[in-house]
Amino acid sequence: MESDRLPDPEEASSEAAGITLHLDGFEGPLDLLLHLIKREEIDIWDIPIARITEQYLEYLELMKDLNINVAGEWLVMAATLIYIKSRMLLPPDPSAAAQEETQEDPRTELVYQLLEHQKFKNAAQMLYTREEVENAVWNKPPKEVEEDSGEIVAATLFDLLRAFHAVVKRFEEQRTLEVDQEEISVEDAIASIRRLLLTRDSILFSSFFLGMSAKRHVIVTFLALLELVRLHEIWLYQKKNFDEIYISKARLSRAAQ
Amino acid sequence: MEVKELQPILEAIIYAADDPVRPEQLKEILPAESFDKIETALQHLMQDFNSRSGGMIIREIAGGYRMTTRPEYHEHIHAYLRSKPGAKLSMPALETLAVIAYRQPVTLAEILAVRGKKSSTSLKTLLEKKLVSIAGRKQVVGRPILYATSREFLIHFGLKDLSELPTLEEFAEMAGGQL
Question: Is residue B66 part of a domain?
Fold first, then answer.
């Protein structure tokens, strides 16, 4: 995808004075391209690639002048545009034309990417409208109530050890081959437990360790659980005594216990 | 119990609930009633309640039923509460969310491919707001994390379920028309 033709500095600055600035709206290169196509009232299926490339590079220069940090994806798009432009300049390869009926327009892939991007921009607009409507409605604020925890009982240390022992035992029965792998720290394990509990109310203790292939991983995760209990971030409970242990996020009222 | 007797009970529960009330939850606390009867009563209740044209409305959200104020009265409510509309999601976050909603489950790299830019900051916001959740890992090299929309997403955007979203093709027509 290399092109030895670098943007001509003179070409880039030729119209710089007349450029209107909408940089805040251009979150990424595709946004800028869509804007240029709309502004020039260009048919998306027939993009004058030389003109658009030139304008794109002008914006890029401008961003540099304004000391805006130009992220890698902007440069990748610049390279893509220049590559397409150079391919458009080449006469069609007669030998290739003989093999294939139609040679693909070098712009096609970019056009599909732009259309796809526009679809999601429209979808985002729809979400924006829906959010606005939802912002305009009120639900009854929750009333402070004492939670009736039913038969739920907090798991004791012995329950926990018993459950952990079962996990380790099951693990040993599997006799999986241990290979050197990335070491996981207790911090990492804490982070991944927190992530899991973002989306789930409670997790069965025994299923928590499924899929872990290293004994070290199991132990580190167990230590992470203990640490989170200590920090009152999670709590361990059973539906009844000696039942399965569940892990759940600590509610504020429970954290005080 | 007759459907007519069931209706006010359901109405009271929906009012008192913090979250959309799902028919399965109602079945659990009304074991003597059939699931069908509960659903019929819910539909009747919604029709009766909403045809009243009052300030409140019962809506189907995230697979359940929820009572809210009607959106058209928001100005009066704000005036009374001396409040202003709350913070909304940024456009980049909404775009990232749109990609996740239509392509789920999806990896960060796949989001990048569609949006043509890094989306990790937006994704972090969406995860923090619990609009997006982790849906496992893709079984490819590196086992990247898969993201999907959550129940909170449906609640936040007032959707009954994901099928209530317009199809992506409908947006394609819009895209074609605009360009």
Answer: yes
